[in-house]
């Protein structure tokens, strides 16, 4: 299979892209070896393969594939690519909602991952699904519009189940264009309970660069929220491109690493199996 040509926004010479979806997710058709070959070409030293896991039967990744198939695919690829200088970790992006907290706990007690992302998405029946969001966003205060989403983010952070919380404010994507990012940016206090929950639980905060590809045109979360997390005492951050296509691997990560450096983070906090590790930011980002 040919290696795709890198695009202009795909970053090079980085230690880690910790959010990548393969054809073991229902919304990607990229084989793991395509990503691996491209990572070698780009000089990205390590990938976390974080295919979707859903716990509501109405969601697309519910029983999409088995744990055993996912683990075998990733572990075999890790062996194949190790001699090319690429490390591949077996991770998962697990959709969180308080209504299936017990199912999540049972799953994570039964199965072991190198690295876990807990993410809140537009769950079935939520006001953020496409056919409901316009009506939900009309005539309500911003607090009421985003309240159900951020309540679930707080619960995910306080659950203690995950290494990091993914795309903290991806609700911006669901609300656009009915509510653009600017009104939310003007209300930083709406983020505060989630950031406090992350700090108090010791859960990491992901800087997700996929928003730079979306109409919101900013990271999830944006730079001021990353800075506020650091001010509150948050020290554990991860970073990922949230790739679902080969040309999205490492996309925008230079911007993301730079945002972290400007917020005075010198390293990422990652997990490889049972071992929590720190990954220094490249020196070229020092000083912002």
Mean pLDDT: 96
Radius of gyration: 18 Å
Shape: globular
Specify the structural class: alpha/beta
State the total count of DSSP E strands: 10
Mind sketching the topology for me?
Layout: E1 17-20, H1 32-42, E2 46-49, E3 52-53, H2 67-82, E4 87-95, H3 101-110, E5 115-119, H4 133-137, H5 142-159, E6 164-165, H6 171-175, H7 181-185, H8 192-201, E7 204-208, H9 223-231, E8 237-240, H10 253-262, E9 267-272, E10 275-280
Parallel strand pairs: 1-2, 2-4, 3-4, 4-5, 5-6, 6-7, 7-8
Antiparallel strand pairs: 9-10
Helix pairs in contact: 1-2, 5-8
Write structural notes for this entry:
- The chain contains ten helices and ten strands.
- It has helices spanning 32-42, 67-82, 101-110, 133-137, 142-159, 171-175, 181-185, 192-201, 223-231, 253-262; strands spanning 17-20, 46-49, 52-53, 87-95, 115-119, 164-165, 204-208, 237-240, 267-272, 275-280.
- Helix 1 (32-42) runs parallel beside helix 2.
- The longest helix has 18 residues, at 142-159.
- The mean pLDDT is 96.
